[in-house]
Design goal:
The complex is a heterodimer of chains A (252) and B (550). With 252 residues, chain A is an alpha+beta fold. Chain A is 27% helix and 14% strand. The chains are: A alpha+beta (252), B alpha/beta (550).
Chain lengths: 252, 550
């Protein structure tokens, strides 16, 4: 659901979004009231790490890696879902935030099996890149390593839930862009699982159109194309902005 | 149909006359606690005895809501003689009825002077145990719906909000947000479609206040919701109640149907032009659905998962419309405030916390049950006077408040008056009102582990710190209670608590570390004994004989 001031404005015919000034990491910037802090930061070449976020999909706010500090608020907020206010002072790279991000990543690595050396996405994996960027060198917790079955029932794709980080990009791209809503989440908490249809094998899914969008947006090796071996799975994510741009043009 | 004030008075007068027709009134508790130990059979047996002796004209036997002293159920009260029979069996019916006419003293006499009852101050529970929750007439006879009538006929919405604000009522769901402020925020919202939601998704382990209120006096909650709806201009409301409370659901359904029949809910209430439709929504047993954004998602038919706030529901809630969400107990306080005035209410309690609080007193205490005390009552009074102290010559160790979001309060704070601020100061929270007393046999590490297990299994799984963080915290606590932990684990655990607290998406995760943090604060020795000496001071944990070296 879009809670941006813009959507409210369009509903009630009020003036276009205001332009605000704010400060991010000491830089004075301007931004529109309907752009998130993450969008404004990116426009100004300020890098904030993200994982569940993907341009073109609705915000999720689950990975907590894009947390930023707003002056006057004790608890950090997700940049991907927070809208600016006039005069806001934001910090995106304090020591505290960097520690939090690394520790969150450490938790993700302890949750499932993320052994890069045997993964199809080795070298092209967003989780791996984040670990390098945030300086995660070891995991202090016990690895939970649940035994999850690999689903190879689909003719073209493979699902390996052991690599899944529950970013739900696949769920969102399938529901919001493809319109099939083949994917969803079963269970809750640590036993949450991404499933196809009503937890059937992917190959027997009635709703799947085999478009492969989920595979391309998946940040790790959880979804891959059949026939790829270790380090061979390279994802093509640029299809999404292109597709969305074409759709917008057609509408206009 | 439109209900007039005269009609309400007539219903009340007829009901009073009916009650006074009986010489003796026997009340049998029919709330979940007593029902579970056979109070329905006790009531049937009493009715049978009264019928056999042809006393139906003189003796009334009726089922009532919670009588409070749940540990001693099934409870039977002789309202006409201040008697309370505890632990009744169907076979006791004869002697109870015999006792009505004899003047001989019994053990059950003078119930009102027992400290369990005399120390209490009942506002929310004023009708609990005295009226039949399934009959609207009895609620009306106890001044029920008078406040709603007054509000609809004599007060503007702004005046209602002003009255609630002046009373100083704060949300009884746990966080203590000022109710008047919440109402006025929703009332100021631009969009005209507004909703009122009653949060009856009580899920803290050991807490049963809301259930008891709904089972014992459902109309009081309906009246509070309707008053709120009028004050905010809401035409529709929902009660989100967990499906694990079948009796509460049944009585709420009955109450809503009765109120609709009399024209107290529905279209053009009391000919005031105000219409309000109230519906039930059942929760499927997820603790996180007590969090307001998850609750709204659940009502909308979506998975019960929270979303970040702001925007707060007061601005964008159900279906994107301004929405008021208050707890059962908060709504139950509304009618008395309107009836007796904000000054009366504001005179009870402490400077910042007004009124009373209902607690579910449980754990290692002689008398467990449902109690209501003024804010600021000390823990000593609650545990030792009302609760009767620790059984079996046990020694008090701590009291846990606020459920899985709260903390453990040790002996040195027993003198402390209980209100929102004082509890927060010692590292706990008021919470919804669960109060679990622990004695020397409780291991505080294991208590923390228990609550972490609860949070872990109730986490929705949306955000990483709560989903994986609670699991890892639980693993670390299990290691400690099994004697397998290393000194480094304690530091790792404290770091992880800080992470989960500050980076989780919703209140569940943000408070999940509280039981660990508060036990670490007051009972660090116990953690150390487990880690350094593989010894559980409470002799509760069975420790591994040797420690695994990493």
């Amino acid at each position: 659901m879009n809670h941006s001031p813009a959507s409210r404005n369009s509903q009630e015919n009020t003036p276009p979004p205001r332009i605000l000034t704010l400060q991010i990491d000491g830089q004075d910037l301007s931004g529109r009231a309907d752009e998130t802090i993450l969008e404004i930061a990116r426009q100004n070449k300020i890098h904030i790490p993200t994982l569940c976020r993907l341009d073109g999909l609705s915000g999720h706010g689950g990975c907590r890696l894009c947390l930023v500090e707003i002056s006057g608020q004790n608890r950090p907020v997700p940049a991907c879902l927070t809208y600016p206010q006039e005069g806001m002072v934001i910090s995106t790279a304090s020591q505290r935030l960097q520690d939090y991000r690394r520790k969150i990543l450490e938790l993700l690595f302890s949750e499932r099996n993320h052994v890069c050396a045997v993964c199809v996405s080795n070298g092209h994996c967003e989780l791996q890149e984040l670990a390098v960027e945030l300086g995660l060198s070891h995991v202090r917790y016990e690895y939970l390593h649940p035994r999850l079955e690999v689903d190879g029932s689909h003719a073209r794709f493979i699902r390996d839930p052991n690599r899944c980080v529950l970013c739900l990009r696949c769920v969102r791209v399938c529901a919001e862009v493809e319109g099939a809503h083949t994917w969803d989440v079963m269970g809750r908490g640590i036993s949450s699982r991404v499933i196809t249809d009503l937890n059937q094998a992917w190959g027997s899914s009635q709703s799947c159109t085999a478009c492969g969008k989920c595979v391309q947006v998946c940040p790790t090796g959880a979804l891959s194309e059949k026939g790829t071996s270790v380090a061979e799975m390279i994802k093509h994510r640029h299809f999404l902005p292109q597709l969305l741009a074409m759709r917008t043009n057609r509408r206009e | 149909m439109t209900l007039k004030h005269k009609d309400l008075q007539q219903i009340a007068a007829a009901e009073e006359q009916r009650q006074q027709g009986f010489q003796h009134r026997i009340h049998v508790c029919q709330a979940a606690g007593c029902l579970s130990c056979g109070s329905r059979e006790v009531q049937e047996s009493l009715e049978q005895v009264v019928a056999d002796r042809e006393l139906e004209q003189e003796v009334q036997v009726k089922g009532v809501g919670c009588l409070g002293l749940c540990s001693a159920g099934p409870l039977v009260a002789v309202a006409s003689a201040d008697r309370l029979y505890q632990g009744c069996a169907p076979t006791d019916a004869g002697s109870i009825v015999d006792g009505l006419t004899s003047t001989a003293k019994t053990d059950a006499d003078g119930a009102g002077t027992l400290p369990f009852f005399s120390k209490q101050h009942k506002i929310v529970l004023e009708n609990c145990g005295s009226i039949d929750p399934e009959r609207i007439e009895e609620y009306i006879a106890a001044e029920g719906y008078a406040a709603l009538y007054t509000v609809l006929r004599e007060m503007t919405p702004a005046e209602v909000i002003e009255e609630i604000t002046r009373a100083g009522l704060r949300g009884r769901g746990g966080a203590g947000y000022p109710t008047g402020l919440k109402w006025s925020t929703v009332a100021k919202a631009l969009r005209q479609t507004r909703y009122v939601i009653c949060n009856a998704d009580e899920g803290d382990p050991g807490a049963f206040m809301d259930r008891s209120v709904l089972e014992s006096d459902p109309h009081r909650v309906l009246e509070g919701i309707a008053i709120a709806a009028y004050a905010l201009g809401a035409a529709q409301g929902f009660i989100y109640v967990r499906a694990e409370y079948p009796l509460a659901v049944k009585r709420l359904r009955k109450a809503i149907a009765q109120a609709e029949r009399l024209g107290i809910l529905g279209k053009n209430i009391c000919n005031s032009g105000f219409s309000f439709d109230l519906q039930l929504r059942l929760g499927a047993g997820a603790f996180v659905c007590g969090e307001e954004t998850a609750l709204i998602a659940s009502i909308e038919g979506l998975p019960g998962k929270p979303r970040p706030r702001p925007p707060y529901p007061a601005e964008s809630g159900l279906k994107g419309c301004p929405t008021l969400i208050n707890n059962v107990e908060t709504f139950a306080n509304i009618a008395p405030i309107i009836r007796r005035g904000s000054d009366w209410f504001a005179a009870i309690g402490t400077e910042k916390s007004k009124g009373t609080k209902v607690f579910a007193l449980a754990g290692r205490v002689c008398r467990t049950g449902l109690i209501e005390v003024p804010m600021g009552t000390s823990l000593t009074e609650i545990v030792f006077e009302i609760g009767g102290g620790i059984p079996d010559q046990g020694r008090f160790k701590a009291v846990q408040t606020g459920g899985p979001s709260g903390g453990c309060i040790p002996e040195q704070y027993l003198h402390m008056g209980v209100d929102y601020e004082s509890l927060a100061q010692v590292g706990s929270i008021m919470g919804s009102g669960g109060m679990i007393v622990m004695d020397q046999s409780s291991c505080m590490v294991d208590v923390a582990r228990f609550f972490m297990e609860f949070c872990m299994s109730e986490s929705c799984g949306k955000c990483v710190p709560c989903r994986v963080g609670t699991t890892q915290l639980h693993a670390l606590l299990s290691k400690i209670t099994q004697g397998r932990a290393t000194p480094g684990d304690l530091a790792t655990m404290e770091e992880l608590c800080d992470l989960v607290k500050n980076t989780s998406l919703c209140g569940l995760g943000q408070t999940a570390a509280n039981p660990v943090l508060s036990t670490l604060r007051y009972f660090r020795d116990e953690y150390r004994a487990h880690i350094d000496n593989q010894r559980c001071p409470a002799h509760h944990c069975s420790m591994a004989t040797t420690r695994e070296r990493p």
